[in-house]
Amino acid sequence: MILRSKKESTSFQILVEIAAHQPDVRQKEIADRIGITPQAVSEYIKDLVSEGYLFSDGRVRYRVTKKGVEWVLEHAMELKKYARFVMEDIVSHVSVATAIARERFDKGQKVSLRMDNGLLYASPEEGEVTGITISGAGEGEDVGVTDLRGMIGLPEVSITICKVPRVERGGSRGVDYGMLKRYSRGKPYIAAIGVEALIALRKVDVEPNILFGARESVVEAAFHGLSSLVVSVDEEVPTLLNRLEEEGLNYEVVDLSK
Question: Which CATH number fits domain 2-88: 1.50.10.150, 1.20.1250.20, 3.30.1340.30, 1.10.10.10?
Fold first, then answer.
């Protein structure tokens, strides 16, 4: 996450400022906008040029390179995901977060919080994110936690989309089941779009977690740290890809047709 590194977050801000005002942007203007000294901006720019993120014609005219644009977009997507997590999972629970108790807790007990398989858990061990229980709770029960300290991290998410043919082109009978077994192995969240996709999964003894509303469900799962496999009839794939790209989520597409 870019916010963990002052150097990376400042580099990001400088690249954004140059991209917005290139090529005629003064270092002092950048410094004033992001709150650092012009000397610091100069040093950052030297590094960004040497790393290939910026191009300079030698006359204090700068342009963000293709490599620089890709770097900015990558981190902008990270920030978008994090902002969504903050708005939906933290701001909505400013006073109290709801977690699942790993064991029995008393009121006022210090606990640590972590995400596991898309859900928030409270445990007695020391951790990076801590809080205080607002009531007693038994193991496996919901428990309110307040006075939060730290930032809950999410694992890297991967989304794999497996295309299956429409029934007119063979449907589930036209699927490479060896490939489907490999791609479904280890995925914590599996969705099916279309009857052909559902039957293909059932033929490898996999029952999907979600069948209806799969597109939005996969997006929500990703923002809770869950990687997904989406088995979809081929004609529905473009709509799914558009939705994932709207949210800046990375994915791979695999054709399961024989």
Answer: 1.10.10.10
